[in-house]
Design goal:
The structure is a homodimer of 335-residue chains. Chain A contains 12 helices and 12 strands. With 335 residues, chain A is an alpha/beta fold.
Amino acid sequence: MHSSASDLKENNLLETFIGIDLGGTNLKAGLCDSNGRVLLKEILKTGTSDGRDRIIKDIVELVEALSTRAGEKTPVRALGMGVPGPVDFAHGVIHDLVNIPGWEEVPIRTIMEERTGIQCFVDNDVNVTTLGELRFGAASNCQNGICLTLGTGVGGGLILEGQLYRGTSFSAGELGHIIIVKDGPQCNCGNRGCLESFVGNRYLVERAVFRIQAGEPSLLSGPVREDPGGITPVSLQDAALNGDALACEIWKETGEYLGIVLAGLVNVFNPEIIVIGGGVAGAGDLLMEPVRRMVRACSMKVPGKAVSIVTTQLGIDAGIIGGAALAMEETAGKN
Amino acid sequence: MHSSASDLKENNLLETFIGIDLGGTNLKAGLCDSNGRVLLKEILKTGTSDGRDRIIKDIVELVEALSTRAGEKTPVRALGMGVPGPVDFAHGVIHDLVNIPGWEEVPIRTIMEERTGIQCFVDNDVNVTTLGELRFGAASNCQNGICLTLGTGVGGGLILEGQLYRGTSFSAGELGHIIIVKDGPQCNCGNRGCLESFVGNRYLVERAVFRIQAGEPSLLSGPVREDPGGITPVSLQDAALNGDALACEIWKETGEYLGIVLAGLVNVFNPEIIVIGGGVAGAGDLLMEPVRRMVRACSMKVPGKAVSIVTTQLGIDAGIIGGAALAMEETAGKN
């Protein structure tokens, strides 16, 4: 168990909340106070576990360990969990998980409540981190906002009238699958020309590799010759920061695609904030500058003036803090 | 005053509401009961009036006449007004009006309340008709929906969690200015490649005229030679219904552009309903069939299954009923 247990003793709040972040690589669990501070946390590899039952057992054990450490003075009120896939939020059922096989229609809320005795809430990971940013991060006190996660996939969460908006069948926020070019490149989702197929990890790397292999000069020409599969957004970021024109252009293009879609969403939602996070967002101004420029250029005057575009604040603990925020949200004012 | 006053006598409800629909061509005002039934209505031309003060005087006189007819047994509780332009809803101030000069920053709510003594609410016309469809029309009892108005401009209104969603600075719902083709055709708004520049009245007619003038065969070749400016969406509708291949293709294209954008919005909002209205929607299945087909093809499975796509129900009185709905909404449960 990671240290920071001293925080726990100093904390006089009566209730604590557990946030769980189930990802394809790691399972993270943390104990938070009602201000969204992480008091204790634990990380396990999910890659090494063998199947669903083992992962559930791991989660239960983490919850029990955190709950014991929380003790009687600061008992755990509830737990919130984010998972990488679509969820029936009302019933706490996971429809399926991206990159983790064997999770079709799993009533995880009931399972967790039966095994741990603690009230449990579950939602998809982007909604959970959006709630974290809304309650304790970059979107604190915002009424209307959009959170965007850029990585292998492109996910989104919507804050409307100060609440997380889930939609009619809890699937709202799929910003990555807005089609931006009719009959465009094949996307992972089966469709063509989705935003994700222009700004997702794999696709922006592919565009760079394709151009380098076609003979365009780049600092990455050598690495591409050796192992094109080894190129990552981080390689492109480093190359761009070292002045590589092609890498700079790839980031500019990526930011412009994203900016045009965000400008449309600014016109549709009139949000006060757009929060951008995820691995690709690590490129910082290489990405954010063209995003901001396109949003300014392509959104209408009134909504364009109302919106700020920022990066996430919660960092690597976002999933834990978001999970705890979900647990707080759903138990607030209830016995 | 149009007849249907007999309705008024039969109506036992204690309160009535006035809805006002200010357009570039007509000023419509109606008295409605709390079920959204139009009891009395009056239409004036706005084109013939000379300036803002005259229009305001007309509106005040219509309100006074309707209010007098409503009488003491069914007094007017409040009035709601829809106007063709952006509005500061909280303060009841019109920022400006499309196609009606001289309306910059007009505090219409205060003006109307001072002159008529009746509580007044004002919003842009698409929001007002969206509210009408939500309370008394195609979106009755819906929690999440999108209303789209297709005409000279393309406007939109959003219903989220059973309420009209206005956004941070009351400008939400500008669906017509989502950019669908980077560096596409010039749009009326100053940008390029907006949805409106593909499916707005003028633009879809322009595409047809351009192709006919370039020599493609069409039933409209004669009319285009005589007066290309005389071609309208209705001409294209008639030609398509008479089997004209080019006209059919224009409608198919238009529906497909619209369908792709709506598919994106289905993925983002996960709505249960999309309501399409306005002049261009008069083309019926010529437009709706490709729209529905593209939404089915391009939206994700879960949100795609949840949504129905329908045409408006309120017809020519939509603005009056919507205005009355706004007045009801804002006074409900208040003294």
